[in-house]
Amino acid sequence: xxxxxxxxxxxxxxxxxxxxxxxxxxxxxxxxxxxxxxxxxxxxxxxxxxxxxxxxxxxxxxxxxxxxxxxxxxxxxxxxxxxxxxxxxxxxxxxxxxxxxxxxxx
Amino acid sequence: xxxxxxxxxxxxxxxxxxxxxxxxxxxxxxxxxxxxxxxxxxxxxxxxxxxxxxxxxxxxxxxxxxxxxxxxxxxxxxxxxxxxxxxxxxxxxxxxxxxxxxxxxxxxxxxxxxxx
Lengths: 106, 116
Fold this sequence. Notes:
Largest sheet of chain A: 7 strands, mixed
Order of helices and strands of chain A: EEEEEEEEEEE
Helix content of chain B: under 10%
Number of helices of chain B: 0
Number of strands of chain A: 11
Distance between the termini of chain A: 34 Å
Helix content of chain A: under 10%
Oligomer: heterodimer
Number of strands of chain B: 10
Distance between the termini of chain B: 40 Å
Strand content of chain B: over 45%
Largest interface: A-B, 22 and 20 residues
Radius of gyration of chain B: 13 Å
Radius of gyration of chain A: 13 Å
Order of helices and strands of chain B: EEEEEEEEEE
Number of helices of chain A: 0
Structural class of chain B: mainly beta
Largest sheet of chain B: 6 strands, mixed
């Protein structure tokens, strides 16, 4: 099974900052990676797929990159609504898997 | 509007069974792979199971294989998860989600608590 490791596990930042979250796969997954945002007591929301393609309606301050085993999610010019937990997910092969999450705090 | 609404959660004794359901609306349900993803209290997301259109292929996480059964009723636009031999570590919010590779959208979830 493919394991995903996110870093950092938590991150403190301020409105207007730029932050980067990393997701590393235990084996190559091409660009078969998605990112989700989850706010407390809400279901996750799909942000991005194929490592860098923004889901419709997601602001352009979110960007993704990477291929193979190393991926990044960057949020530029943080807004208050961006403070949440972020998860990566691989869909290269079953069993699908998620990273452990990165909590972005003010 | 695409909508997924889970039901069937609750408190169950260890070793017990529970059947979750997910009612879908706003899209052609039979065209889509459907999934269950769970989240233990205060923890991260764990993919549980997927079922493709026409139930051609079914996949399970190792943690639930042999105990959980996913199924779908395309005539009723509904997805189900039969959970047997439940243990404390199965305590979680169970989400229904649409999609073959990514999960979008998600339902609001139903809480399953396994405790005596």
